[in-house]
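Posting this for the archive.
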Amino acid sequence: MALDIDGAIRELVAARPHVTESDDVLSLGTLDFNLAALYLQQKRYGSALEAAWAAAASYTRAESVHNRNRALAAVGAALVKMDRNAEAERVLEAVLREAPEEPGQVERTWIAEAMGALATVYRHTGRVKQADELDRARVRLGAQPYEEIEALE
């Protein structure tokens, strides 16, 4: 069964006003994060960036640090795809500074996402050694790369 990404986007966009009215910021963050993930799959990076920033803002209001950091990793991924490497680097390095020293599986997901995107920034800017170091650290972390992460439920 083929995924109807356009249909999923339409459904999420249609649901957004109702979720916004409910003032459930955690659900709004989840909706926007899922929109960002779908937009990234479709290579609609500007829309992905907007949705990921909105998700991060909602998660901040909901005081959900893990989800905020995951949304910020998506912000970084979108910025990388838009070749806005300096901005991506600032966002991704900031989010990685918040990584716990001994992350659980939940944290490993967003840490791996941020590491993967930051490694791409380093490669784009000629810092291959730093990129390779990040890739090795991500492998040691044992988490999946960003492209394999599924949407939040």
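The two ends are 20 Å apart (CA to CA). The helical segments are 5-22, 25-41, 45-61, 65-81, 85-97, 105-124, 128-141.
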